[in-house]
Design goal:
This protein is α/β, with parallel strands linked by helices. It has a single domain, classed as Rossmann fold, CATH 3.40.50. Helix content is 39%, strand content 15%. The strands form two sheets. It has a four-stranded parallel sheet. Strands 3-4 form a two-stranded antiparallel sheet. Strand 5, helix 10 (208-219) and strand 6 form a beta-alpha-beta unit. The termini are far apart.
Amino acid sequence: MNFLKDIFNFILPPHCGVCKKPLESGEKAVCDECFNSIWVIVSPFCKRCGRHTEKETVCNECIEHPHEFTIARALGKYEGVLRDLVHLFKYSRKISIGRKLGSKLGVILENDEFLSQADALVPVPLYHTKKRERGYNQSEILSYEISSHAGIPELNKVLYKIKPTKSQTELSIEERALNVKDAFRVNRTEQVSGKKLILVDDVFTTGATLDECARELYKAGASEVYAIVCARA
């Protein structure tokens, strides 16, 4: 099988999913040059939602629309190369990209004064039919890689999505909140009670999904709920 794969790659060498250049030996799905070109959000950023700001304070959006979670941190802005990578990972089954992004998030977690003190990671769940259709939950893959890198355990069977929801893409802030209202449940409260937890997801746009998940975790007794994502819209 590997022999046939080598022949196929020789005839039709794999290309980077972003820049379309042939991949070098050891590169998967995306070239190192593109991956390393991600513009990473560094200080100053909003103390609540993690978006890039001019001053390290709480942004106007968080003041106008307070979030349920305590803080959120993101690898970068949802644009350019990072947007392409998230799409390849989420919609084109490029799992290797998700693993690399997860490792990057693990570094952010280790170096954050709040996230590094958390007890466990909780991936944002997909509804069961959506997960079956896609073949995987991208948040679970990210969570696994973060856990492997940072040594923080996962709780990937405590939070469930109990009903299907529309795509959030074209919805307003108010519509997004209504769309995910009462869509999640915690079924193992003893694993959540008194714990500092980090929600893991791919993209943070308005925060409606993270807010609803955080609300349920707090109901189940979590002491703090944080969030970490690949991209901040």
